[in-house]
Hints:
Blueprint: E1 2-4, H1 39-47, H2 50-56, E2 58-61, H3 67-70, H4 80-88, E3 94-96, H5 101-111, E4 121-124, H6 137-142, H7 146-161, E5 167-168, H8 192-207, E6 220-224, H9 243-250, H10 252-259, E7 264-267, E8 271-272, E9 275-276, H11 281-291, E10 297-299, H12 307-310, H13 317-327, E11 332-333, H14 337-347, H15 353-369, H16 384-388, H17 392-403, E12 407-411, E13 425-428, H18 454-461, E14 468-471, H19 483-492, E15 496-502, H20 521-531, E16 537-542, H21 551-555, E17 558-561, H22 569-577, E18 591-592, E19 630-632, E20 643-650, E21 654-656, E22 660-669, E23 675-685, E24 696-705, E25 710-718, E26 724-725, E27 731-732, E28 736-743, E29 750-757
Parallel strand pairs: 1-20, 2-3, 2-11, 3-4, 4-5, 6-7, 7-10, 13-14, 13-15, 15-16, 16-17, 21-29
Antiparallel strand pairs: 8-9, 12-17, 18-19, 20-22, 22-25, 23-24, 23-28, 26-27, 28-29
Helix pairs in contact: 2-14, 4-5, 7-8, 7-17, 8-10, 13-14, 17-22, 18-22, 19-20
The chain binds 1-deoxynojirimycin (NOJ).
Amino acid sequence: MIKTELSRRSLIAGAGALGLLARPAIGLAIGPAGDQAPAFVDALIARMTPEEKAGQLTLMASAIGGAAASALNPPNANNVEQQLAAARAGQITGIFNGAGSDWHRRLQQAALQSRLKIPMVFAADVIHGFRTVFPVPLGEAASFEPELAERTARAAAEEASAAGIAWTFAPMVDIARDARWGRSVEGAGEDVLLGRRFAEARVKGFQGRGVDRDDCVLACAKHFAAYGAAEAGLDYSTVDVSERTLREVYFPPFQAAFDAGAGTTMASFNEISGVPATGNRWLLTDVLRGEWGFSGLVVSDYTGDEEMIAHGFAADGRDAARLAFLAGVDMSMQSGLYAKYLPGLVAEGAVPQARFDQAVRRVLTMKARLGLFDRPLGRIVAGRERERVRTPAALELAREAARRSVVMLKNDGGLLPLAKAGRRIALIGPFAEGQHDLIGPWNVYGDDKQAVDLATGIRAAVADPKLVTVAAGSGIDAPLAGGIEAAVAAARAADVLVLAIGESSNMSGEAQSRTAITVPAPQQALAEAVAAVGKPIVVVLKNGRALALEGAVRDAPAILVSWFLGSEGGPALADILFGAYSPSARLPVSFPYESGQEPYHYDHKPTGRPNPPGPPQEYKAHYRTAPNEALFPFGHGLTYGEIAYSGLSVGDGRLGGSGTLSIAATVANKGRRAAEEVVQLYVRDRTASVTRPVRQLKDFRKIALAPGESKTVRFTLRREDLLFIGQDGKPTVEPGWFDLWVGPSAAEGLQGAFELVA
Ligand code: NOJ
């Protein structure tokens, strides 16, 4: 239960003048310090043929492991012998999503037989774990613990690198404000600050103590840029956003990733306001390199260059290669267009030799940074792959990360935690039992068969497993013959129901957009039927996005959001259900009342016709059938404690010059169970020369509170935290009044105000 009370804000005048910022937080961040090419690189380039250069710029899906991907390879690279031959001929820079260190060893040895012995790089989509699978990134973002994401990324890098992988296509740092977009599951949600913090943490985790080390992998911040802003949430569709929104919303997580040292980025599939990202020179060169000083490598997404033909931007493959390359894409993934056309384009003068050499230099520099020239087999050591995966420590981390990712939306009457003994539990729903839909939609190397399901987790936690009955009740998308009847019978014979329903793995992820973000109809029918039995219900949702909950699901007394929790999801959920751990996660995406509210994000702009509190009024901004706000707001999540906020203080009420503003509030746990609370600081700029969001998250802190304990939580607000992109397109702050809130979600909190003075 949350209690808030407003405190008087203090507004004692103070002196100060706005100073120049050493380092603006948006728009002008500087990329990783220039990884200058080692001296041998230019000597090597001087010896390379145009075909060898184009080969260094050509990446292909692996013939082993990435079955679906390699089926789409151009014919010269789609089987083992052809890829080995390409390696020997120096025609391929590396492969991605390959399986196993043996295959990587064979390829590397082949590359070392090539004329110039340039080593290959092995890349992969290591998004949320390798063989040990952690919660999907959206779920992990719900922990509001970037340091947790750093630890899981580190563990993933340790496992993946032992298979020879040196480069991960992660983190995905796209802001996702439209839950219909299936790839919401891969990022950190709708908020810019959360996106920045998780981008930075994941890069640090992947790259560890240095990408030349054998247990580290190079990060790739993707997809640059605004991929999540697809019209109507349709994956791969058009993006048309203002430059201001790019700079304020979509760019900052990339800047955070680059500031943390991410050495590569991936151009996104989408067009941005008429120009595909892959052919967008302004984006990939003027902003990325010119403004931010990024000195790493830009890779296309999978056939992204070729897709510019379908976009209606390139005339043919040759034109697509030219446009992508001149825009700033250094390496082409999967289309083979660079290998096919770049030597000719350079010979004809359509592509400058200097640009050709520059891209090759970036690739060779990346390989040098990875230590591949010194130790081409450094990450490929016999036996290491087996020893380093799914260790007890990694699985324990998977369980910890999973329980820290579960959001408790409701807990009416303190239904949770459940007693471990003496209660008959009916575990109902298509996700109750079975090795399916456990690890999530985008995991190349994990295996549902090695993950622990909910039924197993619950049976291991209760005193008498015989008191647990399981009934699927429904298929995921279709009814199950006799399913509802069996589930109702199980419900009648039980004291409490745990209803495991939601989305399958393949309802989110790449190319999985939904128009209705609801629980599928047959499962909703199951929920209505078992709710009618009248027993207490705990809903455990499986989901890769925000959902619009309806009927008996929405009205259940207890609701847990469990995303896709990975290898140890079942035991982690049992930890929460039976009180071994108090839920501590928060929604990184708003849960709307209805699908039609999407795109929905809490940090929207104010309207000129706000509906006053109370019922809808004519000619004011409101829907006919649904509230404007979210059913469960961004930042929301309950604990087993009883949390109360009080005593807000806002420094001297003035933020001036190069000064800072100290904000403090007291957060108490008045309950009988320990809890962790995510204390959130939001700000609103009341009036500015460019309209500002109704609230923006500026900081957050997760604190542990024993029963009866209270803590003072302090935040420091700086002038640069208030920057926005002004009418002239440059970062600016303007003196004036700001509202602020310290509270448990984007819709609650103690309210205060301060003045920014010139
Ligand atoms: C396409 C996806 O958009 C991208 O995220 C991924 O890294 C590549 N495929 C390679 O698998």
